[in-house]
Amino acid sequence: MAHNEDFRDESGVKMGWLAVITFVAVPVLPAVLAWYKFFAA
Q1: Would you list the DSSP string of 1-41?
Q2: Which of 19, 23, 27, 39 is 20 to 30 A removed from 5 (C-alpha atoms)?
Q3: What's the pLDDT at 31?
Q4: Cα–Cα–Cα angle for 24, 37, 34, nearest 5°?
Q5: What are the transmembrane regions (predicted)?
């Protein structure tokens, strides 16, 4: 099995940012929908 010393797996960084965005966006979603209904009426 070959080993590349310069290999960097950045999937953990991407998943970390996805988790941060999810933890921020999910609780805010009901408020955004309420604002949309308020201003659309």
Answers
A1: ----TT----HHHHHHHHHHHHHHHHHHHHHHHHHHHHHH-
A2: 19
A3: 94
A4: 35
A5: 15-36
The residue with tokens 């966006």 is 25
The dihedral through the CA atoms of 33, 34, 35, 36 has a sign that is positive
CA distance 22 to 24: 5
Q: Tokens representing 28?
A: 């805010």
pLDDT at 15: 93
- What pLDDT shows up at residue 17? 93
